[in-house]
Amino acid sequence: MEPTDILPIVAILSLVTVEFGGHALLRFITTDRDRLGASRERFFRAGHAHAGVLLVLTLVYLLYLPRTGFSDGLQWLVGVMLLVGVLAQSGGFFVHMAVGRDGSRSAGTTLTRSGALLIAAALVALAVGLIRAA
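RE: above sequence
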């Protein structure tokens, strides 16, 4: 199967987890706000928002990917790189929420930055592919 047949399914199913995360966030805010705390709430919101927006970006990206003329192998590589980047960037907020402290770096902030680099590399690859194909 083509990468653009499988990867959109992964992105759409991942959006279901974002939906569940929105429900969980709403529950925390309305029932257990004091337990979550202001700092953790900010990181929860950031992780949730980044995941949703970046997964929608992934769906748009996968619409343009076939126009690049990349081989199937390269399409798999950049598509998976984008998805891993999205999961790493948004997931890093949740990791920091769990183990980080205000004003200091953690494994979560490193994961978020690594995800951002993967996303940037995948986006540049798409742009180059589209320019070359034009």
